[in-house]
């Protein structure tokens, strides 16, 4: 089965074969312009729904008083308002029980005016985030991480896509980097990034269609694989794990994995890789902006599905 949901459909079509064969310093691939294009597409689709009397709605749930999480929710609400979404919000106290959280989810699931739902991650340690995610109506799952949606992705059935993998496909398409027929190596098989990204980029679609290899700690000589990658995607969450000696000269390098030390962002890809790569995401503002944009893409698609 092929997946007719194209994460890159809001971005430019992939070019036939632009090669990144020249060696450093690499062309930068910022995520901002990709996100802007996706937001423009979402805005037009919001307006189309509103002209039919429907206001798309992205609900959010925050548990506890973590400053960073509250900040992320505020950013998403501001963005939702700018795009024309309603954004009803439930803020549950830090000592909420799993049953309290499930009750809030059930309420939004049952509300026909709410089309998409986000539970801010992480929830306090005493709560089971995965169980909460399982409780979300899969058709309202704005992160595309509900197991049913990961199953849809595996089976090639359209549905909400995991935001970061979909953002990476859109980023490659936006910069007209040919993926089809090329060798993509992903370092990391995590549930959020590496694993769904491998499924996505192997699908039969012009902006995917790649020969995908996934390496991890079970492959100690992983550099053997990364060195032959036309497109190397870091998804490990190990700062500096990708060094210039792991990159084929002229390759496209996408930094997905990051770790935070306080507010300091530590990317998987060493900046010096730009001397070897043909194209590379910047240290800050690479994949991140596309992830946020894809969240709103999932939200508008959820609203459109309701009224299809
Ligand atoms: N930019 C964004 O917007 C965004 C969004 C989501 C996630 N992320 C980032 O993406 C990264 C991956 O997240 P995730 O949840 O998918 O992954 P995860 O569950 O943390 O898994 C990390 C993966 O990397 C592999 N790995 C770790 N150290 C390694 C090493 N030394 N050598 C080889 N492989 C190694 C692990 O191998 P094993 O399986 O063998 O343990 C595992 O497959 C994280 O840094 C996360 O912060 C970024």
Offer a quick outline of the entry:
The protein is an alpha/beta fold and 308 residues long.
How is this structure best described in words?
The protein is of the alpha/beta class and 308 residues long. 36% of the residues lie in helices and 14% in strands. Strands 1-11-8-7-5-6 form a six-stranded parallel sheet, with helices on one face. Strands 3-2-4 form a three-stranded parallel sheet, sandwiched between helices. A two-stranded antiparallel sheet has the order 9-10. Catalyzes the oxidation of 5,10-methylenetetrahydrofolate to 5,10-methenyltetrahydrofolate and then the hydrolysis of 5,10-methenyltetrahydrofolate to 10-formyltetrahydrofolate. GO terms for molecular function: methenyltetrahydrofolate cyclohydrolase activity; methylenetetrahydrofolate dehydrogenase (NADP+) activity.
Q: What is the topology?
A:
Blueprint: E1 27-28, H1 32-51, E2 58-63, H2 67-83, E3 89-92, H3 98-110, E4 116-119, H4 129-135, H5 147-155, H6 163-174, E5 183-187, H7 194-201, E6 211-215, H8 223-226, E7 231-234, E8 252-255, E9 258-261, E10 264-267, E11 279-280, H9 287-307
Parallel strand pairs: 1-11, 2-3, 2-4, 5-6, 5-7, 7-8, 8-11
Antiparallel strand pairs: 9-10
Helix pairs in contact: 1-9, 6-7, 6-9
The structure holds NADP nicotinamide-adenine-dinucleotide phosphate.
NADP nicotinamide-adenine-dinucleotide phosphate binds next to strand 9 and helix 9.
């Amino acid at each position: 089965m092929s997946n007719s949901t194209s994460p890159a459909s809001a971005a430019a079509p992939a070019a036939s074969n632009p090669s990144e064969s020249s060696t450093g310093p690499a062309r930068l691939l910022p995520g901002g312009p990709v996100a802007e294009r996706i937001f423009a597409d979402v805005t037009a689709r919001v307006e189309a729904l509103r002209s039919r009397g429907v206001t798309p709605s992205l609900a959010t749930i925050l548990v506890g008083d973590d400053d960073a999480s509250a900040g992320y929710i505020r950013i998403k609400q501001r963005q939702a308002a700018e795009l024309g979404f309603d954004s009803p919000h439930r803020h549950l106290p830090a000592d909420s029980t799993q049953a309290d959280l499930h009750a809030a989810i059930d309420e939004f699931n049952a509300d026909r005016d709410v089309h998409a739902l986000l539970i801010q991650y992480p929830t306090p340690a005493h709560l089971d985030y995965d169980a909460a995610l399982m409780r979300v109506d899969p058709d309202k799952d704005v992160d595309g991480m509900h197991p049913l949606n990961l199953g849809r992705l595996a089976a090639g059935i359209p549905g909400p896509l995991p935001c970061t993998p979909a953002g990476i496909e859109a980023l490659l398409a936006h910069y007209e980097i040919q993926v089809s027929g090329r060798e993509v190596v992903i370092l990391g098989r995590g549930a959020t990034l590496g694993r769904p990204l491998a499924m996505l980029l192997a699908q039969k679609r012009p902006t995917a269609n790649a020969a995908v290899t996934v390496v991890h700690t079970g492959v100690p000589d992983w550099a053997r694989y990364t060195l032959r990658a036309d497109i190397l995607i870091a998804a490990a969450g190990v700062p500096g794990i990708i060094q210039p000696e792991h990159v084929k000269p002229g390759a496209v390098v996408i930094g997905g994995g990051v770790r935070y030390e306080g507010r300091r962002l530590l990317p998987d890809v060493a900046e010096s890789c730009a001397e070897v790569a043909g194209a590379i995401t910047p240290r800050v503002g690479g994949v991140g902006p596309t992830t946020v944009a894809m969240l709103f893409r999932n939200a508008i698609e959820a609203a459109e599905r309701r009224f299809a």
